[in-house]
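Q: I'm writing up a methods section and want to include an example of the input and output format. Could you take the sequence below and give the corresponding predicted structure tokens, formatted cleanly so I can copy it straight into the document?
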Amino acid sequence: MIKRVVLSTQAQADLAALDRPVALRIAGAIHRFAATGAGNVQGLRGIHPPEFRLRVGDWRVRFHDHGDWIDVLRVRNRHDAYR
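A: Here is the clean output for your methods example:
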């Protein structure tokens, strides 16, 4: 089952600020995860409601998984992703 992907306003701005090839690579990884569940995903500890991160090279996609859909919160460089 393919999950619906919803990008927050901040996630949209994060992707728009990136170079086009990098943004397309990240968007592809998000949609691949939504379709197949494949990707380097890890649950973040100490955050409620449960939050996950998808690693795409030096970039981190933080999101909530609601079962039928994924709410992408931020797309940040690994140095800034957890601040």
